[in-house]
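Objective 1.3, modelling of assemblies. Example input:
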Amino acid sequence: MGALVDYIQFVLVPQVFNGLTIGVAVILIALGLTIIFGLLDVFNMAHGEFYALGAYLGVTLAGRGVSFWLLLLLVPLLLVPVGILVDRALIQRVFHRKERHMLTMLLTFGLAGVMEDVFKAIYGANIIKPATPLTGGIDFLGNYFPTYRVFLLAVGALTIAGVWLVVNKTSFGAMVRAAAFDRQMAASLGVPVRRVYSATFAFGVALAALAGVLLAPLYSVFPTMGKDFILLAFTAVIVGGFGSVRGVVLGGLLLTQIQSLASLYVSPVWGDPIVFGIMVLVLFVRPQGIFGGKLGHA
Amino acid sequence: MLESTPLVQSTPLVQPAKLGRVAAYEWSHRSAQVFIAAALVFTGVAVFVGDTFFLRLATEALIYAGLAMSVDLLLGVTGMLSLGQALFFGLGSYASTLVLKHVTPSFWVAMAVALAVGTVAGAIGAVLSIRARGVYFALITFGMAQVVSKVVYNTRSIGGSDGIIGIPVIKVNLLLFEVDTASPAGFFLLVLALVMLLYFGLAYLLRTPAGRVLVAVRTNEARVPFLGYQIRNARFLAFVVAADLAAFAGALYPMLRGFVSPELMYFNVSGDAVVTVVIGGLGTLIGPIYGSVVITALKSIIGTYTDHYPIVIGALFMLAVIAFPNGLMGAVDTLRARRKGGSP
Amino acid sequence: MKTRLSTVSLALAGVLSAASAIAAEPIKIGVVTPLTQTYAPIGQQVRWGLELATKEVNAAGGILGRKVELIFEDEEANPAVATQKAEKLFQVTKVDFLTGTVNSGSTLAVGQVAERNDRLIATTVSFSDAITGDKCSPNVFRVNARAGQQSAALAEWLNKEKPGASVFFLGPDYEMGRNTVAAFKAAVESRGMKTVGEIFAPLGNKDYSPFFGQMRAARPTVLYTSVAGNDTARFFTQLEEYGLRKNLLIVGASGTVTSQNMGALGAVAEGYVTGVGYSPEIDLPANKKFVTSFQAMAGAAPDLYGADSYGLIYFYKAAVEKAKSTDTAKVRTAMRGLKWMTPQGEKEMRAGDHQAIQDMYAVRVEGGKFRIVSKVAGTLAVGPDSCTRF
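Predicted structure (tokens):
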């Protein structure tokens, strides 16, 4: 009995905590992905690179003396015009063709390759490791919880709640949902559909950038970092159902907990195959995801 | 049916219908003939000046063209974007390597085993993926390649991360004569013949009833739901044939380079194949062959001036998606149409 | 210092081989090395080392009165690209010799291209034991220390420092990672230390914290790791975050902390110990001169890759001068058993497996620099010759 309590306290609890922090990281990246897809039907293959762009911008500005706390606000704001530009200059050019699914996917795939190489050209291939803004940790129930990870959990929860409020409780969110539900009808009701599209794309991209700033102290910054979380984020979106905020949160948590707990019992190398297996299984059984549906319907 | 479609894409820019349906199809074949003629001239010149490097580089371009053609069959003809086609290319190359190195140094046995592996892997891949559409299909293919390449990377008995070297030079028995894989011109001509055979074979396949359904899947899917069952079969067939094509091309790789490594299955290779198809001309089957030659040449030319050629190729790719959705073939096609006094 | 040196040697060159050096065809050395992608920083060191040595050799009259010319090609750390570029250099540029490959897969594949083109290559970076072991080739030489030499040096030091230590192993899960862990495990266990746990994390692992529970429970006194590059930064940061670096001696492979990632790692790399064949600190006049010239030319300190690449040019020079020819068979014979001088002191090319024998060092990160903490004689560290092909 004592052994069991010990096991729960010293093995399972820290494992669940670590899984949670990774889960929040995945959700922060996947949120933007799912919102953009839910509204625009655009699968943003360059999403990971926007996450990297946020991290690089953070590193650059921090180097000029901008404080980390200000960066959390500043970097996502700086990415809004970038997002609008990408939407106008690239996405909208192929948006009205019949196969926009495929074309936007190809386009953002090309963009991802270019962005990755631009990072290399500007910052070099070497890794950059920003300082952790909060050091130390909290001893609780005989376990050690690093302060920055606790902070990350809190900010992650706040961000998720914020995004949910924006999508479900604001007039912008209402327009987004209306446009996602029926573009023509929304337009005839006076919703500025094109602007809503651009704003949504920018919103999603800004979320990725926020994740970049937040995660850089834990995971470091380098040109190919965009590919890092992308399989997990894709899968979280698929499991949760495209366009569903609640789905992506539950999907992200579920996947990372499975991975984290599985690493106690099987070789960690099986982490990716497990995630992939879940993705295939979900697509097989319920192609629209567990909470699938149009944006705002879940 | 075919005449109306392999060249017709979603594009507003290029409408082969303007050339007349049959004309578009014949034009594609004529491009193939031009390509063969150019390749023969190239071989002659290369042999005359005693070159080996460029012949072998061109052989490699043709091998990657085979992979690109398999992506085109999925994306251009049936509308399924595969982001993991290098998986089958890599499986083919490993299968051929293991046969040549450990079983028998026979070209035909190696190719047969590679095709068998391609068929089995393709069938498994198809079962896992063809139910999904669009983005979902792309993600599943991406994931499959990701997982299998990691397994290969970690499996010591097939060389792990170091790959396998020491694949012997072989003689290809063509009944009347033999081709040595170490002979640059001989092997180039053999690969050229094989790739062009694949092209004409595929073009023929698309004219058969099964092939027509494939094309219909892409163009009219929404309008032919009553074909539901047939569509499923057609997709399955397309996926397996594409896997075979990729495995076939992959099987040639170790004969040229004498080694294989897990990098052959990586996302870069799958991604490059997609880029090749889009730049060459989606849905034309001949476009990927031209595209592969263009990309190989571009890399080798830009590569001497800058280390950042991915930016150039990526930008070209995006430009192609936006402005020339039918790629090189489409652009040439439009020019021809214009000169003939047709619009636009 | 550098300019004075080169003026002196330039004058010398003029006296020695005035007409012949200009008239003769240059000796071409091809360099297939990663100039882009992940390994670009290593390729940069290789390039600097080779260029510095070539400049010196040319200023002193070249090799057999012929100038040396380097021709670079980017291999993207991808064997498929490396073989293509190697063929270009052998067949179009017609180089006499080739070097530069970084990852072991590329070295093995390019070695085979060399065999088929009847030329010689040398690696100055790859440290997989297989290259001069079970996959050895008569056309491939290695002038740098292999993994076995590195772990021998480290185990020797560890045994003196912490006899009977409990060691926990964390390696990247691929062939090279498993090899280094297995080699070091054998080395420490044969010296009476014990293994208390072993984990293999996937390559490119994002978060190591899920493994910390197991690690804590095993209560090790020493942690051995062979993760590399970007993974090191994450792993060390997360160890620090979880307060695990206290009371734990961290040792590992030479590729784990390098001059490329040390700057980024900062304080979390302090105290890390590894076994290597080079440190800028080596107290030899030849090394001091090398470090000064390197610093002046590159604006950065040399690391083991730069130093071994620099030494390679002198290896080739010595062999060609001994053979009095650049002919493959003659140079190969000359290279076997050759002794030559490098910044690290004298190295010897073992005839039986084409592996260089050299003194090895255990080095510790202190104040962002590698400090030498012990030295192991080359013959003790090199290990047996396991090559059976020639």
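Residues 2-126+139-285 of chain A form a domain with the ABC transporter involved in vitamin B12 uptake, BtuC fold (CATH 1.10.3470).
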